[in-house]
What does this fold into?
Amino acid sequence: MNAQIMALPAEPLSAFEQASLLHMREEEKLARDVYQALYAKWGLQQFSNIAASEQRHMDAVLSLLNKYNLTDPAANKQPGEFADAGLQQLYNKLVADGLQSANAALTVGATIEDLDLFDLAVAIEKSDNQDIDMVYGNLAKGSRNHMRAFNRGLQSSGITYVPQYISQTVFDSIINSAQERGMQ
It folds into this structure.
């Protein structure tokens, strides 16, 4: 995806776009780090596969940070370590919740994707840069696919996930639609 990002023109960043890029870099790191911790505990393949996808999401946002000469908030941070105190608290809570049981872990996964989708929708709405919109659109495709995977895992155990951030209508639309392919 880096080639596609670099092929689009660099456009002036609004304060919101700059803050959004910095936040999204760490939010994607949060997802990756939580999924790695939960995979280590439960060995569920969804966590291994989706953690690898989150790394690609982190790399795509890093390409934008580099393109716009923004300092990477995730640089030199260990797994589970964040510059944003709110994300640090969220990470700690999500890992603690996910360590309770395999089903709790799947619920944590769905919750992370729920939050990502909400934040991405807001970011896409408020951004007018082509490259940012392209990356965020691809991240949203990935998050919808991840939501489907976590939801399938929960449904197989008879658990119904109730979205906390996106609407029930948006959630239903996601889980009732086919897997999507993003840019590689």
Notes: Helices lie at 2-7, 15-42, 45-67, 85-98, 102-126, 130-156, 168-175. The longest helix spans residues 15-42. The chain has one domain: 14-175.
